[in-house]
Write a structure and sequence with these properties.
The protein is an alpha+beta fold and 287 residues long. It folds into two domains: 5-209, 3-Layer(aba) Sandwich (Chemotaxis protein chec); 215-285, Roll (Surface presentation of antigens (SPOA)), CATH 2.30.330. Helix content is 36%, strand content 25%. The protein is built from eight helices and ten strands. The chain has helices at residues 5-28, 67-80, 88-114, 155-164, 178-188, 205-209, 226-229, 279-285, and strands at 33-39, 48-53, 60-65, 121-125, 133-142, 145-154, 215-218, 248-252, 255-265, 268-276. The strands form two sheets. The chain has a six-stranded antiparallel beta sheet. A hairpin with a 2-residue loop joins β9 (255-265) and β10 (268-276). α2 packs across α3 (88-114). The longest helix is centred in the middle third of the chain and has 27 residues, at 88-114. It is elongated, with a radius of gyration of 22 Å. The chain starts with a helix and ends with a helix.
Length: 287
């Protein structure tokens, strides 16, 4: 049985809202309330627009906002990271990074629903509305701040999701639950990120706690000309860009999460954590 077109559109809008809320919770320290409402047509003007393809599916998804609302989202995140002053370009960059993470999670939800790989690629800024599309507004409220995004799903993308959704989910049950994907976003952002999501919010939380993550320690880096690399032999010394008294980086999933000092534990090297990096630093390390 093929899914109803409107039903699939509502699911996509709802999933997008959930993923944006999850990213804001992770980066801003609080989960906003979300309200999704259908719109009659495309916005008349697009100040901050982001067009996103989801290969191998055809068509695009558009997220648009006024410049003030987009920058307000960036400001909300940076202030939570204790960055009081930021220029418009940095606020905009933080906003688009937030969209990128939410859309990447949406692609994972689509992959789970369709039972096939869906990637988040070829996205970029645009001031043009989509062709034939279904539109909705997504309102986000956190404390006394409220912003609204306009989301459009191109008809070709919507039709592809409708046609490729397995019949097992035709009753309206979405294969991936929003909160479960929220946990995945938290884990991907680095150790400690899941503290911002309540443990009871996901049935798979206990399983995620058993997932093993690669932890490494970085003592420093060095840039060496190729000619000098070719001269390296046993006994050669490579000087790093970090003094012996400086703390080392603790890296999880390619993200610096903490810094500390090297210690010896029962004959093995270890690291005593001295500083856990802020949300802002983690956000930057994910780019």
């Amino acid at each position: 049985m093929i899914q109803d077109r409107q039903q699939v559109a509502e699911w996509l809008f709802s999933e997008f809202a959930e993923h944006v809320a999850a990213v804001l919770e992770l980066m801003a320290g609080g989960r906003p309330q979300t309200v999704v409402a259908s719109l009659e047509g495309a916005p008349e003007t697009i100040e901050l627009g982001w067009g996103q393809s989801l290969p191998p599916l055809p068509g695009r998804l558009l997220v648009a906002s006024t410049e003030a609302e987009g920058l307000a989202i960036g400001d909300l995140i940076l202030r939570a990271a204790e960055v009081e002053e930021a220029d418009a370009e940095e606020l905009k960059s933080t906003y688009t990074e937030t969209l990128g993470q939410a859309l990447s999670s949406l692609a994972q939800s689509l992959a789970g629903r369709l039972g096939k790989e869906v990637t988040c690629a070829n996205g970029g800024e645009t001031d043009q509305a989509l062709g034939p599309a279904i539109w909705s507004s997504v309102s986000l409220s956190l404390g006394d701040r409220s912003v609204a995004l306009v989301v459009g799903i191109e008809a070709t993308l919507l039709d592809a999701v409708v046609e490729q959704t397995p019949s097992e989910t035709s009753s309206g049950e979405a294969t991936p639950e929003g909160p479960e994907v929220d946990q995945a976003v938290a884990v991907a952002a680095g150790a400690g990120a899941s503290q911002s999501v309540e443990a009871g919010a996901s049935k798979t939380f206990d399983l995620l706690l058993d997932v093993e993550m690669p932890v490494s320690v970085s003592f420093g880096k060095a840039q060496v000309p190729l000619k000098d690399v070719l001269k390296l032999t046993t006994g050669s010394i490579v000087e790093l860009n970090r003094a012996i008294a400086e703390p080392v980086d603790v890296v999880v999933n390619n993200c610096v999460i903490a810094r500390g000092e090297v210690v010896v534990v029962e004959g093995n090297f270890g690291v005593r954590i001295q500083h856990v990096v802020s949300r802002y630093e983690r956000l930057r390390s994910l780019r």
